[in-house]
C-alpha cells in the first residue's frame, strides 16, 4: 500500500507537533510505503529538520503562491462556468455551498482551475460583487485581495499529486482540497486527520489580523469554512485526536458516521523506564517546545518570576529549538534579563528530551493553541505531573475522560494566566501527596489510553478499510 500523506507548512521543515506525529506514524508502519506531500507558501530555500524513514518512497511539494505552467491541462469550459454561476450566490450557507461544489467537481476534477481568473465570467462576477457590496473600496486593493484569496485555493485544486492508493491529509485547508480533487481525479479514497480544527484556527487569525480590512473578514471566514466543509464532504473517514474537537467538526460536517477519535500515542516503554525525580531541592520545571509565540513562552517566564519569589532554589528549563522565530526568542531573553532571572531560566536549544525528563519535578505548558501535545504524554509516561493551559485536549489529558476517571495528573488553568500557572507549580511543590499521586496517575493514564502501538493499529485499520 502507498499512502500519500499531505502536510501543510509543517513536516519535514518544522519540528514538533504535527511533524513529530507524522514522522512517528510513518516510521512505525514499516510495511506501508509513504509519499510525503508538503505544501508551502512561496518557493524558498529550506532545510529539512527530519530524516525521512526508509519507507518514505517519494517526496513532492508545491507552493500556494507560485506561478505554475498548467498549459498542458484543459482550460475550464463554459459549461462549468455556467453551472458555477448558478451555485455561487452571495451570501451563502457554507455546508450547502460545499455540497454543490463537490457535486460539480466530481464531473470536472482534471482542469486548470487557475484559468478561471482569465475568463469573462470571473471579471463580470468580480465587478458585480464589487458594485453590490463594497463600491466605496479602492478597486485595485479589492482586485488584488480577491486574487490573494483565490490563487492558493485554485492552485491546490489544479496541481497533480503523485498517484497513491489513499490520500491522508493532516488538515482540511489547502492540503485537504488537494487531497479531495486528486482523489476524485484518480478515484482514490481520502482520509482526514485533524489535530487542530482548521476553520476555527483560521477564523481566529482572520479576526485578529491587522492586515485584513473589516470589509473582507466575513469573506475570508466563509472561504475557509467552505473549504473545510468541502473536505469533510469528500473524505471517506474523518479522525481527530480528542472528542472536544468533534463538536467543532460537526459545525460543518453533517455525516457523523465518518467521524472517530484516534488519540495520539507514544512509545510507553521508552519513557516509562525513566525514574521520576521525587526530591525537590532544587525544584526543577521544564517547558518542552519551540520558542515561538504560539507556545507563549513569555507567560511561562512571568509565572517563573512569581514562583522564584516563593521558591528560592527553583529552576526552569526551556527545552527546544530557538531559531524558528528569532525576534520572539530575543524578546524572551530580554524579559528574563528585565526580571533578573538569568540564573533561574535556561534555554537548552534542541536536545534529547530523554536526558532532561529525569531532571524534572514538573512539566509546564503555556501554549495558547495545541491539539493533543505529545510532550504531555511523554512526561506522563516518565511519571512527571503537568501544569498546563486549557487548550486542545490538555484538560482531558490531565483530568481524564469518560474512558479514564482515575484522577488528576496535574493542574489546568486558562491561557495567558501566568498567576494560575505559578499557583499550579506551587501546589505541586507544597503538596507532596498530590504531586506523587499525580505522578502515578500520569503513568497509568498513558499506559491505558495513549500508547503508540494502539495508535498505529488504529491507523493501519483505517488505511485498509479505506482501500477496501
UniProtKB/TrEMBL annotation:
GO molecular function annotation: glycosyltransferase activity
Domain (DUF3492): residue spans on this chain: 1-251
Record keywords, A-Z: Transferase
SUPFAM superfamilies: UDP-Glycosyltransferase/glycogen phosphorylase
Keyword DNA repair set for record: no
Alphabetical list of Gene3D superfamilies matching this protein: Glycogen Phosphorylase B
Residues covered by the Glycosyl transferase family domain: 275-445
PANTHER family in alphabetical order: GLYCOSYLTRANSFERASE (PTHR12526), PELF (PTHR12526:SF608)
Name of protein: Glycosyltransferase
Species of provenance: Marinitoga piezophila (strain DSM 14283 / JCM 11233 / KA3)
Organism lineage: Bacteria, Thermotogati, Thermotogota, Thermotogae, Petrotogales
